[in-house]
Specification:
Elements lengths: L2 E5 L3 E6 L4 H16 L3 H21 L4 E6 L7 E8 L19 H8 L2 E7 L2 E9 L3
Helix pairs in contact: 1-2, 2-3
Length: 135
């Protein structure tokens, strides 16, 4: 992990080198932060989806991978999660065949999150998703 920024308890960010251990590290910090925010109810799903996105970033990126969490504030019932990398190409959802060993990450993201999307950045892209937080 390159750095951690935690601002006022409602946002946490980490940057990981594009190395295989980044997936495990990202999963761990996401679970830990969500536990600290008393959001264990979405921690496993958030960690799974972050794993998928960080794995996708590792597949193509050689630069740092960012993970950002924004927790519900003022009664909001959602959690925003973002994964950024320096590759400008936006991911495309595809239909994986039963024998394919990959290609299901974005389908999993689309089926598990309230909504998701992508946006270009100054140096790369961000894939984000929103999870419903039970009240």
């Amino acid at each position: 992990m390159i750095g951690v920024i935690d601002t006022d308890g409602d946002c946490a960010e980490w940057t990981f080198p594009a190395e295989p251990g980044a997936v495990r590290s990202a999963r761990a910090v996401v679970r830990g932060q969500l536990h600290g925010w008393d959001l264990d109810c979405v921690a496993d799903l958030a960690a799974l989806l972050v794993s998928e996105l960080v794995t996708n970033s590792l597949r193509y990126a050689t630069g740092p991978i960012g993970v950002r969490l924004v927790r519900p504030v003022g009664g909001d019932d959602s959690l925003l999660v973002e994964v950024s990398d320096p590759i400008p190409d936006l991911p495309r959802e595809r239909v994986a065949r039963p024998e394919d060993e990959s290609g299901r990450g974005l389908q999993l993201l689309a089926g598990s999150s309230r909504r998701w999307g992508t946006r270009p950045g100054a140096s790369g892209k961000t894939v984000w998703f929103e999870l419903a937080v039970p009240g």
